[in-house]
């Protein structure tokens, strides 16, 4: 790993998985060990992803509703009718959660790689502060070359 003279830590995440220095961004955790030079950064993007288990729940409840509805005989099956109503309600609730709840990620792309990390514990002002400091230092590094 290349070291830089006068490199200082500017910001770290609460869990110490992301570190912004005057020359690099580090991502260190159990699964990932990456770093990007600030002068090589091309862009960043905030990505919103829906949670997978809400998709699965919605599909599951819709299939169960369809199966229960196929077995419904309106004259005789009051219990199945109530089950269909409950399954419809659960399908609607899980679909609402699917469309409302999203995870946000920050993807930083450089010429030689990318870093992506969750923004679940970061509010908008903290994100703006991080990006401002990152781009300020990035411009300083580009002027040095």
Distance from N terminus to C terminus (CA atoms, Å) equals 19 Å
Sequence stretches where pLDDT stays below 50 over 5 or more residues: none
Helix-strand pattern, N to C? EEEEEHHEEH
Strands in their spatial order, largest beta sheet: 1-2-3-4
Q: Which of globular, elongated, flat, extended, rod-shaped describes the shape? A: rod-shaped
Number of strands: 7
| Count, helices | 3
CA radius of gyration is 24 Å
Helix content: 40-55%
Q: What structural class is derived from the secondary structure elements?
A: alpha+beta
Mean pLDDT: 85
Largest sheet: 4 strands, antiparallel
Percent strand equals: 25-35%
Structural commentary:
The chain is 43% helix and 30% strand. The protein is α+β, with helices and mostly antiparallel strands and 145 residues long. The strands form two sheets. The chain has a four-stranded antiparallel β-sheet, covered by helices on one side. It has a three-stranded antiparallel β-sheet with strand order 5-6-7. A hairpin with a 4-residue loop joins strand 3 and strand 4. Helix 1 packs antiparallel against helix 2. The longest helix has 23 residues.
């Amino acid at each position: 790993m290349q070291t830089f003279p006068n490199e200082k830590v500017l910001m770290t995440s609460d869990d110490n998985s992301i570190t912004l220095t005057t020359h690099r961004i580090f991502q260190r955790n159990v699964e990932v060990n990456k770093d990007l030079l600030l002068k090589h950064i091309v862009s960043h993007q905030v990505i919103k992803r829906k949670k997978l288990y809400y998709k699965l729940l919605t599909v599951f409840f819709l299939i169960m509703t369809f199966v229960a509805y196929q077995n419904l005989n309106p004259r005789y099956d009051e219990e199945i009718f109530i089950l269909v109503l409950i399954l419809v309600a659960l399908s609607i609730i899980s679909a609402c959660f699917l469309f409302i709840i999203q995870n946000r990620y920050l993807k930083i792309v450089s010429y030689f790689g990318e870093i992506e990390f969750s923004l679940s514990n970061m509010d908008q002002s903290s994100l703006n502060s991080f990006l401002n400091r990152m781009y300020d230092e990035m411009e300083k590094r580009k002027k040095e070359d």
